Amino acid sequence: MTTDYSSERPRIECALQDDGRLYAGVRAIVFHSAQQAGLEEHTKEELAGATLEICRGAFAIARNSGRGDSAIKLIVGGASDQIEITINTRGTSPGIPSATR
Q1: Strands 84-89 and 99-100
Q2: pTM for this one?
Q3: Beta strand pairing status for 84-89 and 12-16?
Q4: How far, in Å, CA of 52 to CA of 87, rounded?
Q5: Which residue in 86, 92, 85 sits closest to 62, CA to CA?
Q6: 31 with 45: CB under 8 angstroms?
Q7: Of 13, 14, 22, 17, nearest to 69 (Cα)?
Q8: Is 15 exposed, middle or buried (0-12, 13-18, 19+ CB in 10 A)?
Q9: Per-residue confidence (pLDDT) for residue 61, from 0 to 100
Q10: SS (H, E, C) the chain
């Protein structure tokens, strides 16, 4: 049995610390993946901005949870005509939800 991977784009995974200097990287990763999916310009910008806001919210939740580590994991991938973005905090608990958009 062979699997056709031609419709899949590379998946980008990164662990991020709560450092404002990394925010531009979040936007660039999402924008690039959205561009590869063929999304319109305004949609790429909106998706990148929304993802950044969710990351900021995840950092705030992690900081306020009392844990010493506020790192999050960002995963961006999908097929050729779609994009999937997952944001997880370490040790996700009922008080720290995982968001998939």
Answers
A1: antiparallel
A2: 0.75
A3: unpaired
A4: 10
A5: 92
A6: yes
A7: 17
A8: exposed
A9: 84
A10: CCCCCCCECCCEEEEECCCHHHHHHHHHHHHHHHHHCCCCHHHHHHHHHHHHHHHHHHHHHHHHCCCCCCCEEEEEECECCCCEEEEEECCCCCCCCCEEC
Amino acid at 14: C
**Token pair of 101 as six digits:** 């958009």
Q: For 38, left (φ over 0), alpha (ψ -120 to 50), or beta? A: left
Q: What sign for the dihedral angle of Cα 84, 89, 93, 95?
A: negative
Q: What's the full length of the chain, in residues?
A: 101
- Say which amino acid occupies 80: S
Instruction: Say how far residue 27 (Cα) sits from the centre of its chain.
Output: 9
Reported as a single tens digit per residue, the pLDDT across 59-85 is 888 888 776 677 889 999 987 778 999
